[in-house]
C-alpha cells in the first residue's frame, strides 16, 4: 500500500508497541482525499471553533518553549481506551525523557518525572504498562513517541492491553520524527528536559504565528 502524503493519516496499532504494524491492520486514507479533508478541517476550526476547546477531534497540541531551536507546536493523539484527560492547562511544565527510554520498569530519573510530563519511547512493553510506570513515579502525563525515527506520518491508535489494568494520567502518542528531534535537541544542549505548554488551543493562534515543525506536513 502506498504511503499517503498527508501526515495526519492514522494507523491502528496494538496495545504492544514493538513494531509499527504489530497486532493491528493499517487504516489509511487516500492521499488526495485525506489532504483535502485535513485542509478544509483546519480552515474550518481556525475560523469557527470555540476558543475554550483544548482538544480538537482526535488531536491534542503542545508547544515546546525551550530549547528555542525546537520551539514548535507538536501534534499528539490521546490513547483510545485508557488514561485520563487534561483538565488543567500547563503554561510551563517539564517534558522529561525517561531513562531508560522505553520506561518498562524502574526509572533512573524518576525523581525528575514527579509532577512533570514524561517523554517515553515505544517498544518493550505495552502502552498501558508505560503509562502506569510514569503514573507510579508521580508523572502528570506521558507522551509516547514512536520508535521509528523516520515516522512523520502515521499515528498509532494506543489501546488497552489484555491485563484489565487501568491508568489515570493522560497518555499521548507522538510521531517518531518529532520525538527524535526533541530528544536530539536536548542532547545537543546538554539539557535534562524541555519546557512545554500543554494543551495548546490552536484555534486562538493566528495562522501566521503557527510555528509548525519544518520536517512534517500539517
TrEMBL record:
Cellular compartment(s): Secreted
Organism per entry: Limosa lapponica baueri
Stated name of the protein:
Protease-associated domain-containing protein 1
A single GO cellular-component term from the record reads: extracellular region
Protein's job: Plays a role in the modulation of physical activity and adiposity.
* One GO BP annotation of this record: proteolysis
| SUPFAM superfamilies attached to this UniProt entry | PA domain
Molecular functions per Gene Ontology: peptidase activity
Which part of the chain is the PA domain? 95-179
Q: Which InterPro entries match?
A: PA_dom_sf, PA_domain, PRADC1-like_PA
The record's Pfam families line, in alphabetical order, gives: PA (PF02225)
Q: Which UniProt keywords apply?
A: Glycoprotein, Hydrolase, Protease, Secreted, Signal
Amino acid at each position: 500500500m502506498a504511503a499517503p502524503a498527508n501526515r495526519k493519516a492514522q494507523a491502528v496499532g496494538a496495545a504492544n508497541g514493538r513494531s509499527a504494524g504489530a497486532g493491528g491492520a493499517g487504516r489509511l486514507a487516500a492521499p488526495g482525499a485525506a489532504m483535502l479533508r485535513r485542509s478544509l478541517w483546519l480552515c474550518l476550526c481556525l475560523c469557527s471553533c470555540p476558543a475554550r476547546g483544548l482538544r480538537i477531534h482526535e488531536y491534542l497540541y503542545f508547544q515546546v518553549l525551550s530549547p528555542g531551536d525546537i520551539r514548535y507546536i507538536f501534534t499528539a493523539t490521546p490513547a483510545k481506551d485508557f488514561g485520563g484527560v487534561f483538565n488543567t492547562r500547563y503554561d510551563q511544565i517539564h517534558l522529561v525523557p525517561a531513562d531508560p527510554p522505553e520506561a518498562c520498569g524502574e526509572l533512573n530519573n524518576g525523581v525528575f518525572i514527579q509532577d512533570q510530563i514524561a517523554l517515553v519511547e515505544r517498544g518493550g512493553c505495552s502502552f498501558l504498562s508505560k503509562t502506569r510506570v510514569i503514573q507510579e513515579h508521580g508523572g502528570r502525563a506521558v507522551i509516547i513517541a514512536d520508535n521509528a525515527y523516520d515516522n512523520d506520518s502515521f499515528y498509532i491508535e494506543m489501546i488497552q492491553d489484555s491485563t484489565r489494568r487501568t491508568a489515570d494520567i493522560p497518555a499521548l502518542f507522538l510521531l517518531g520524527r518529532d520525538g527524535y528531534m526533541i530528544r536530539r535537541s536536548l542532547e545537543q544542549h546538554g539539557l535534562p528536559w524541555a519546557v512545554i505548554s500543554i494543551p495548546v488551543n490552536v484555534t486562538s493562534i493566528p495562522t501566521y504565528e503557527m510555528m509548525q515543525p519544518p520536517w512534517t506536513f500539517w
